[in-house]
Amino acid sequence: MECRIGCGACCVAPSISSPIPGMPNGKPAGVRCIQLDARNRCMIFGMPERPTVCRSLKPEPEMCGSDAIEAMRTIAAWEMASAPL
């Protein structure tokens, strides 16, 4: 599966604990990544500065669903389910 252009759910819904250019402490869940442009495209895609967790995340039908809204809901639910108690 290829990434849905303009979705951006994986750049908003999950927390990212590793540094991101412009976000040295990563980002909390639900916060838009500073590297996500106005068209919901990663401005550091393919660059070595992109966090390993972002480079390793691959779009899958279970995660991405049928549209960006479904992807956001799924990733947010996974984030909540994996949060420490």
Mean pLDDT: 94
Provide a count of the helices.
3
Assign the structural class, choosing from mainly alpha, mainly beta, alpha/beta, alpha+beta, or little secondary structure.
Answer: mainly alpha
Classify the helix fraction into a percent range: 25-40%
- Taken as a percent bin, the fraction of beta residues is under 5%
How many strands? 0
Please mark out the parts with pLDDT under 50 across 5 or more consecutive residues, or reply none. none
Structurally, how many domains make up the residues?
Answer: 1
Radius of gyration: 12 Å
For the sheet with most strands, the description reads:
none
Distance between the termini: 33 Å
Plain-language structure description:
It is a single chain. By secondary structure, this protein is an all-alpha fold. It has one domain. The protein has helices at residues 52-56, 61-64, 68-82. The termini are far apart. The model has no long low-confidence stretch (mean pLDDT 94).
What is shown here, in short?
By secondary structure, the protein is an all-alpha fold.
List the helices and strands and how they pair.
Layout: H1 52-56, H2 61-64, H3 68-82
List keywords for this structure.
globular; single chain; mainly alpha; 85 residues
